[in-house]
Amino acid sequence: MKQNPYLGPKRNKDAQKIQLNEGILHRIAQKDRTKIFRLFVFLGLGLFLFVCLLALSVLL
Q1: Is 32 among the domain residues?
Q2: How far is residue 38's CA from residue 60's CA, in Å, rounded to a whole number?
């Protein structure tokens, strides 16, 4: 069967779905990384403030 030159090659729909899923998973992973980073920053600041208050209470 001869391929119609005006249509071009057929698209592989499975490959498109896989690529779309990988892109979605990558975005989810990035969001998880930013959430974890924010959590560590929040905990770090909280620990820093706790140590500062503890030092002030010892000095006073």
Answers
A1: yes
A2: 33
Four-residue CA torsion sign, 8, 9, 12, 16 = negative
pLDDT tens per residue, range 3-32: 666 666 677 778 778 888 888 888 888 888
Query: What pLDDT, on a 0 to 100 scale, did the predictor assign at position 37?
Result: 93
Host H or E run for residue 43: helix 13-59
What amino acid is encoded at 7 in this protein?
L
**SS3 of 9, please?**
coil
Domain that holds residue 44: 13-60
